Amino acid sequence: xxxxxxxxxxxxxxxxxxxxxxxxxxxxxxxxxxxxxxxxxxxxxxxxxxxxxxxxxxxxxxxxxxxxxxxxxxxxxxxxxxxxxxxxxxxxxxxxxxxxxxxxxxxxxxxxxxxxxxxxxxxxxxxxxxxxxxxxxxxxxxxxxxxxxxxxxxxxxxxxxxxxxxxxxxxxxxxxxxxxxxxxxxxxxxxxxxxxxxxxxxxxxxxxxxxxxxxxxxxxxxxxxxxxxxxxxxxxxxxxxxxxxxxxxxxxxxxxxxxxxxxxxxxxxxxxxxxxxxxxxxxxxxxxxxxxxxxxxxxxxxxxxxxxxxxxxxxxxxxxxxxxxxxxxxxxxxxxxxxxxxxxxxxxxxxxxxxxxxxxxxxxxxxxxxxxxxxxxxxxx
Length: 381
Description:
Elements: H1 2-14, H2 19-22, H3 28-38, E1 43-44, H4 56-67, H5 80-94, E2 100-104, H6 106-118, E3 124-129, H7 133-141, E4 145-150, H8 159-165, E5 170-176, H9 188-201, E6 204-208, E7 230-235, E8 248-252, H10 257-268, H11 276-285, H12 291-308, E9 313-314, E10 322-326, H13 332-341, E11 344-345, E12 347-348, E13 358-362, H14 367-379
Parallel strand pairs: 1-11, 3-4, 3-5, 5-6, 6-7
Antiparallel strand pairs: 2-8, 7-8, 9-10, 10-13, 12-13
Helix pairs in contact: 4-11, 6-7, 6-10, 12-14
């Protein structure tokens, strides 16, 4: 009886819910994150959230900005001085004479604006698989078609496969390096090869560089250095321990200035602007040295990799703070369920992939928790 009533209720609700909302699922990460709140002192390898707080000088700038009355709207595109500073950095880094800049409410907010501005129904977006979960769902909401390109087992940028996937309908190619969930850092050679492919058809590349400061084996290469039709998204959340501040920026060569202008227009009617006092603090953050945090996370990476490499099949992450580990049990979701019963929270790889063969670890937690989690994982094999 209850099942029948539930079915009737769901059919009634479908009359009201927009099709675009039905096309997306609740985030598997958030489901596990919510589960963590109900468990007693779990070992949480689930959420990609730094375990360090905002550095005190940056925090003080935000406090001062609030006390000084910077609590109103900023310009839709962002605080003028912050945008000028970002433009200066971008000009020096990429050689772009007059870069277009938009301050966004997090990289996720920037991604939404970019997809809304660029993706029409039927447009194709090429995405290396595995991928950050938000790409798939927002593109589906826009009526676009995700073209997933397999990067297993080593998670290098699959240049040849991307070349084969390009069609007349290709609107965007997404590059996320360092990558969530694999921790892969793409080589300069592969990025240059991808730039040549994109240039043939003047395809825009969306470069998600939220984790670029977390590179452990040398300076990261970027595609914007060799390809002007690149939309660069960078955020403050991970590098400065401020995910709750919702702050990021978009930068582009002047040939894509119209794209940034359209994103700004959409922001006016959605987010309105990024949080004003935190924009003031971001001016200080841009010059703040986070090398000590990065060094600490390099050690965490080594703890995870050295602890698991003899028991599990995994590629050594080059950046970010994730490891994408092949499950000893298939499907991987079954192994994840076993781990959760042991009070260890990990994410099934199918959240980030069209496959269910791996699980994701976030090692953004204390070193002791990492050691405990490694032992639990090994005990489950």
